[in-house]
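Q: Here's a chain of 163 amino acids. Please give me its 3D structure as tokens.
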Amino acid sequence: MFKRKKKENKKIEEKNEIESKKDCIYQLLDDKIIICEIDLDKNFTYLNKNFQNSFNYGKKELIGENFTKIIHEDIPSCLLDRAFLTASQGDSSHPGVWEGLIKTKNKNNDKCFWNNVFIQGIYKKDILIGFSILKRETNKDKIASISEIYQEIKKTGKSKNFC
């Protein structure tokens, strides 16, 4: 029993150390980047501090919750399906990446954000285990044009360029 407890504590320490290193690396990249990681069921497994601050969620509130919790209703579900399909195509040395604009909402549903989003597969020993999602601000010109396309998809269920 004592050995099992010691082994569990060591795993927890290693996980905390990995998360701390991720935070440091991501902070070096850009202090305005919002970052999260999700598993294959699209449940949150990691949130950086910028994510928590932007969406008004604590880490404990979202870890294990589904990613769609923060997605605004204006975003067609087929767009997210396409994004994750694209991001899942690749391997550990050449992961698939999807880039596009996604509208999200905060905890209270009183603030919406349009972000340029990058979704990339996370691999462990060449097996896809989840996705890393990086978000950053975008310009208003991009928002206006993509909003019209997303509205078309929501109305008709299709678009020439998406889904």
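Q: Can you summarize the key feature?
A: Residues 31-156 form a domain with the Beta-Lactamase fold (CATH 3.30.450.20).
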